[in-house]
Amino acid sequence: MKKLTDVLELVNLRDNGVNKMRWNILRVLQQTGDCVSGQVLSKELGISRVSIWKHICNLRRDGYVIQASARGYRLVSSPDLLLPGEFHHWGQKIHHFGETGSTMNIAKELAQKGAEEKTIVIAESQTHGRGRLGREWLSPGGGIYVTLILRPEISPAYAPRINLMASVAVARAIRKLFSLNAELKWPNDVLIGGRKVCGILAEMEAEVDAINFVNLGIGINANTAVSHYEKGATSLKEELGREVSRKEFLNSVLREINEQQVLLTKSDLLEGWKSLSATLGREVRIATPGEEIIGRAVDIDASGALILKREDGSLSSAISGDCIHLS
Ligand code: BTN
Question: In whole angstroms, what is the distance from residue 275 CA to residue 155 CA?
């Protein structure tokens, strides 16, 4: 068991907002794993015992079971929700919704109002989840629906790399945590056994030479029975035959994103994507609104475009579109 002083050192007290304090109290309870008296909490966190009690009541309302005894407070169990208090290491603002239309809409509003880099919007379910190319993204409870606000200092021409980065991060997290053979389909789908387990949608606001923000939407079929209503899709639950801990998995994805993000302008990112690719080496059809290209996928270029070798031996590149594996 960790000492309370060790835990408190780790607690980020920069922001003394009401919510932050609630999550700080939770973190102390999570990490001590034992009773902590109201007096100690109040002294260390610099708020009254009455305020501590109010925060405990709010945590209980969120679904945390917290026992109160003469010895203090003890965390008994946590709800299966992706609440901000489960992602302490992230260190940036997290907005959590039980249900919302689309996390993309909320993130757009926040980004336009100046939200900080790496602000996250999480929803337990979405009523109007959006996919690529104007499609719907079915978003029932049990999945993971997240939008990250990023403000990368790169040329807008390199923005597609952000999608590659996110897909690499998700695939790496799946491989590490579940030992499943996650692969990538260009431009940014994550597949297991050829079936889609995660989709990524990026929306950008930019000037000619600078990105204002890129909102990176990630939808993961975690504990959903997605194959029943979506042909060609699968979920982590269906692959493993058991439910997964969504908070553990999302924590792992966010850690991978932190690691991959520093590679955004480096060739290592492209190499990482290529090593996980299920598209390279295959015969593919790329459908865009105005055009269709058929050829063998031979490489991706520095901006993330797919290079195809056509039947006549000529090379073509595709910047975006729907990719269908033909072989
Ligand atoms: C795709 O079509 O493959 C992309 C799907 C992206 C879905 C995610 S879920 C979180 C975020 N909110 C949305 O409405 N869409 C994205």
Answer: 25
278-to-78, 178, 286 alpha-carbon distances in Å: 38, 19, 15
Q: Is 131 in the pocket of ligand 1 (CB under 6 A)?
A: yes
Cα-to-chain-centroid distance, residue 224: 17
Ligand 1 pocket: which of 133, 135, 136, 145 to mutate (most atoms within 8 A of CB): 145
Element (H, E) at 181: none
Cα end-to-end span (Å), the chain: 54
Pocket lining: 137 vs ligand 1, CB cutoff 6 Å:
yes
Q: CA 161, CA 273: separation in Å to the nearest integer?
A: 10
Instruction: Work out which ligand 1 atom sits closest to the CA atom of 131.
Output: 2
Each of the 327 residues of the chain gets a pLDDT tens digit; together they read 444 333 333 333 333 355 789 999 999 999 888 899 999 999 989 999 999 999 999 999 999 999 999 999 999 999 989 999 999 888 788 999 999 999 999 999 999 999 999 999 999 999 999 999 899 999 999 999 999 999 999 999 889 999 999 999 999 999 999 999 999 999 999 999 999 999 999 999 999 899 999 999 999 999 999 988 888 999 999 999 999 999 999 999 999 999 999 999 899 999 999 999 999 999 999 998 788 999 999 999 999 999 999 999 999 999 889 999 998
Q: Which of 162, 151, 164, 148 is nearest to 213 (CA)?
A: 151
Ligand 1 close to Cβ of residue 132 (< 6 A): yes
Nearest partner of 105 among 90, 89, 83, 127, judged by Cα? 127
